[in-house]
Each structure stands twice: as structure tokens, then as C-alpha cells.
Amino acid sequence: MSPRPADRAPAALPALSDPPGRLLRRIIDQGADLDDLLLHRELLGRLIRDYQAVAVERDRSLRKIEADLALARVIQRQLLPREIPRWPGLEVAALYEPSSSVGGDLYDFFEHPEGPGIMVGDVSGHGVASALLFALFQAAARRRLAEPGALTDRFAALNLELVGAFPDGRYVSAFFARFAPDARALTWLKAGQEPGYLVRATGEVRVLEGGGPPLGAIDPAFMGAPEYIPETISLAPGDRLFLATDGLVEAADPAGRQFGQQRLVELLGRLVAGSAATMVESVRQEVRQFAAAQALADDFTAVAVAVTGKT
Amino acid sequence: MMVDAPVLVPGQDGTYQLCLTGKLYAETAPELESRIREAVDAGACRLVLDCAAVDQMDSSALSAIIAGLRYLMRKRRGCIVFAAINPNLDRVLTLTKMKQYFPITATVAEALVCAAPDGSKAGQS
Q1: Of residues A70, A81, A161, A170, the one with CA closest to residue A120
Q2: pLDDT tens-digit series, residues B57-115
Q3: Closest approach of chain B CAs to the CA of A168, in angstroms?
Q4: For residues A267 and A260, what is the distance between their CA atoms, to the nearest angstrom?
Q5: What DSSP letter does each residue of A161-173 carry, written as one string?
Q6: Rg for chain A, CA atoms, rounded
Q7: Do B66 and A194 touch (CB under 8 A)?
Q8: Which of A134, A268, B37, B45 could form a disulfide with B78 if both were Cys (CB 3.0 to 4.6 A apart)?
Q9: CB A212 to CB B97 under 8 A?
Q10: Which residues of chain B lie closer than 8 angstroms to A193, CB-CB?
């Protein structure tokens, strides 16, 4: 018969993180039989108490992390513009569709002498860090884009600032759209973001591509200066601009299929009547219906602007 | 879904291969960046990312790879090649305009040939 526990120093007191199965294995390997195991009651009782303590501690840590994330989510929402701007000849609508995680989606509005501007963007990654980078980006973008000079140079300066401010590799993909003061032209610059969509009054949808890499990603000192080239297109009353982050086209249905760009283009082509607000709301409903009961894996942001022609 | 840890395979003449699997997401991004830095520290100047078994890549993972490229470029001139990417990865690299910074090849074999010293530079897809 193996020695009683009392005869043995409990030198092999298992670490708290050991799985229970391995602990029992270890006790049995030490030569204990079932009778011995019963006599290990004190040790087992202590282990159970230890595990309970660990579980309580983990539960407390988890609740603290969840509370931090909830706070980050609130702060992030508060960084989004509180009011939708009223611009002559234009009607603007925006939505933010949250997901279960803290994302880094953003939209912002700018009032510049060259005309009103809109930015829709997405900070790489998720979580509290993305919310912090979001705030940093927003401040830098508002300052840099208000500076005089060509849009290309302002984007290059913004990229350089973010390369220095962001941790290596983190970036913001963004789509910037600026309307002429008379709302007869649209200038856009896409920086690694989803394309924009210009929906003509006829239902024709033009995909607005071009531009350069995401902001903050490419360090000109070692990788060459990234080029940010804006493009311009004329507008007419009844035209609509639709911008969204990737959470929209990547929203998945219960079978795992993505909403996709083609479905979005077809949908936008049907939304030629109604306001900009109707457009974003229709898209939201369509995506929710597509995803069915599935929670969105990623948040998404969408902004629609209708050219009303009314000043 | 189980995801295997990235496996780093040292090659000759500074060409290393990193075999990736599953979804490249926020959870796996830090380890991905560590493996790339490890390869660079070991002397890699060309790193081939074997993506044949990769389903998806999110912005966290792309950030990690960009961080790895920046680390490499600061140390020495070199490149990171994406090999055997599926349409999901192709979409991400196209949208973000990253194809001008990362050569892309259809297969790993092609990447290894292209990344060889006499192959100068891998071709764009």
C-alpha cells in the first residue's frame, strides 16, 4: 500500500492553472489508490477552493475588460459628429451600425472654403486601441485638411503625421469627398478604403475608385512617398453619393455568404427616389434582413448625400 | 476554428518562407508580426508568405504584415511576397492598394523562384 499523505510532504502541490484531470493523474501517479484519494480530501478541497478563487478573479477581470470596452464604445460614438450638416443644394444622412466589438469606423464633416467635405473611414483593427487611434486620426485629419494647398499635399502630410503617431503598421483607410460650393461637382480621394458610389438620377451607378494606400501605413522614408491623386466628376440634381465602410459588403448571412459589392450596387440603383436618409435606412434594413439573426461581425458606417439643387 | 501557428522555414540566400493557415485576424496578428520580425532578425531579406491555406485576412493582420515590411525596410532592402492568395485576400490587397508594396505570385514555387537572388523581383498578379 502506498504511503498515506501524512507520510509524504505535499511537495507536489499543483499549480493553480493545472487542469483538474492532470492533477488527479499526478496524485494517482504518486502511488495513490482509491482509498488514498479519499484521504486526499483536504488537498482536493483546497484545490477546489483555489479554483473557485481563480474563477472569481477571472470573472472579475472579464467584467472589468467588458466595462472598459463598453466605455470605449461610448467614447467612440461620442466622437462621431452629433449633428448632420445642412449644406446648400445637398441633403446629408449618416448611420453607424454597431457590432459586438469596438470597431474603428468613423465619419466626419468638414466646412472648407473650397466646399463642404465628408470623410468615411476605418481604423485598422478593433478594440480600445482602435478607439484611441480613431480620436488621434480625427484630430489630425481636421487640422491637416483645413490647411491651404492641394488635396494631394494635405493627404501626404496627414499620412506622414500618422506614420509618426501610430504604432508601426496601424492605419486608417478613408474616403474623402468634397462638393463644389454650388454642388455641381464632386472631388474625391480614396485612401485604401471601399470605393464610393455615385448613383445618377437614372439609376446608373458609378463606382468611384482610384486614390492611394491607407493613411499611416506607408513610411515615405523607407518605402517611397505614397501618391494621393484626387478625381473630380460633375453632378446634377437627383444624383446621390453613397459611402460605406467594409462592414457593409462583408456582412454575412447565416450560411456565411457576404453581402458583397454587386448586391450593394443593384440595391443602390433601385434607390433613386426618396431622400438621402431613406437611402441609408433602406441599405441598413436590407443588410439586417440579409444577415438575418446573425450579429454583425464588424460595425459599419454609411453616409449618403443627395444633390437637391435647392439652395 | 483551429488555426495553426505560423511556421517559419529558413531558406537559402536570405529567402524565408512563412506558412500561414486559417483566418488571419486580430487574435493571430501579434504572432504573425513576431514571426516576420524573427525572420528579419535572422537575416531574411525576402519573405514568402504561403497563403494557400488562408481563408481570410482582416485589417489587424494586414497591419501586422505592413509593420513587418516596415521593419524589414528599415533594416535592409527586401520584400515580402504574398503567394497563393484566394479572392478574399486579393480583394483586401486591391482595396488597400497594397499590391504596389507586396509582390503577389500564384504559387509558392513561383514566389521562391521570383524571390531568388537572380530572380530580382516577384511579378505582380
Answers
A1: A81
A2: 999 999 999 999 999 999 998 999 999 999 999 999 999 999 999 999 999 988 887 65
A3: 5
A4: 11
A5: HHHHHS-TT--EE
A6: 28
A7: no
A8: B45
A9: yes
A10: 95
Hey, how many other C-beta atoms are within 10 angstroms of the C-beta on A267? 20
As averages over each run of 10 residues, the pLDDT of chain A (311 residues) reads 45 51 67 64 79 89 85 82 94 86 86 94 84 90 93 96 94 97 96 96 95 96 94 96 93 90 96 92 93 76 93 70
- ipTM for this model: 0.86
Instruction: Say what angle helices A128-145 and A41-79 make with each other, to 10 degrees.
Output: 20
Chain B nearest C-alpha distance from A234 (Å): 24
**Amino acid code (one letter) for B95:** L
Locate cell 464633416: which residue? A109
Query: Do B25 and B61 touch, CB atoms closer than 8 A?
Result: yes
**Separation between Cα atoms, residue A40 and residue A24, nearest integer Å:** 10
Q: Are strands B46-57 and B15-24 parallel, antiparallel or unpaired?
A: parallel
A303: number of Cβ within 10 Å: 27
DSSP-based three-state secondary structure for A122:
strand
- Within 8 A by CB and 6+ apart from B82, the residues are B49, B51, B89, B93, B102, B103, B104, B105
Distance CA B87, CA B93 (A): 10
C-alpha cell at A66: 467588458
Count the neighbouring beta carbons within 10 Å of the beta carbon of residue A286.
Answer: 18
Residue B48 has φ and ψ, to the nearest 5°, of -100, 120
Q: Is A122 close to B96, i.e. CB distance below 8 A?
A: no
Residues of A in contact with B98 (CB under 8 A): 192, 213, 217
Q: Contacts by B90-93 with C-beta closer than 8 Å and gap 24+?
A: B90/B125, B92/B57, B92/B58, B92/B59, B92/B62, B93/B62
Q: Determine contact: B53 vs chain A, CB below 8 A.
A: no
Say which amino acid occupies A296: L
Render B89-118 in DSSP notation, one character per residue: HHHHHHHTTGGGTS-EESSHHHHHHHTSGG
